Amino acid sequence: MMKLSPSRLAALVLAAWMPLQAHAGLLDDDEARKAILDLRAKVDAIARDLNARIETKSDKTAQLDMLNQHEQTMQEIARLRGQIEVLANQIARAQEGQKQLYADLDSRIKKLEPQQETVDGQVAQVMPAEKTTYENATALFQSGDYKGAAAALQEFVRRYPDSAYASNAQYWLGNAYYALGDYKKAIAAQEIVTSTYADSAKVPDAMLNIASSYALLKDSKNAKKALQQLVSKYPESSAAKTAKDRLASLK
């Protein structure tokens, strides 16, 4: 708010008082004091009117300025809100992308990490791809695709000779050859089970399969020998009980 300062008011008073001073000789003291008081009153009235006008004008200008600033501020707020919404959406998409990326990485890492599995009662570390390959191969056997199973199982034992599933894969390979009527290959495959994987739970069954293959090849001597070895080495196995029954029928 603009107002007349005391110095400016004093200047106005002085300007009005100087003519009076020039005629001081014509006025007595009472008349001079009265004239000065009147002049001061007029100056004060003029100053008040001027300040009132300035104040009124300033208020209106200030109001207009405030309205303009308010409008500009609201526009700026709207613009910033729009930017905030865009950024929020970008951040949300980025976070979702990161979650998906981490999920994909976690899935890939899990495929590369060995998993704990129980194979024939034994706990072992098995690679996910290894397990999947074995299950796919045995699924072919169970579906009756013995030729496909033989090829898949043979590939498995080639790729994973030290796998916890290797002895089982070798055993089912022998069974696949047996189902295909290739008894010589069946014997060769099962002999690998009994020698290379001698600690496998599948050895007694592999020996029984060898005996059966010899029998179908009309090789009674080797069939009987395989049965006798089975009963001697694994007398408590279910395969040994079957072997005993077959030996009894051969007498």
TrEMBL record:
Compartments in which it is found: Periplasm
YbgF trimerisation domain location: 52-117
One Pfam family here: TolA_bind_tri
Residue ranges the record marks as coiled coil: 70-97
Keywords: Cell cycle, Cell division, Coiled coil, Periplasm, Signal
Keyword hit for Acyltransferase: no
Gene3D superfamilies (alphabetical): 1.20.5.110, Tetratricopeptide repeat domain (1.25.40.10)
Major location category of this protein: periplasm
Annotated signal peptide: 1-24
Superkingdom to which the source organism belongs: Bacteria
Keyword Signal on entry: yes
Domain (Outer membrane lipoprotein BamD-like) ranges: 130-251
InterPro entries linked: BamD-like, CpoB, CpoB_C, TPR-like_helical_dom_sf, TPR_rpt, YbgF_tri
Similarity annotation: Belongs to the CpoB family.
Function per UniProt: Mediates coordination of peptidoglycan synthesis and outer membrane constriction during cell division.
This protein's name: Cell division coordinator CpoB
Native source species: Massilia agri
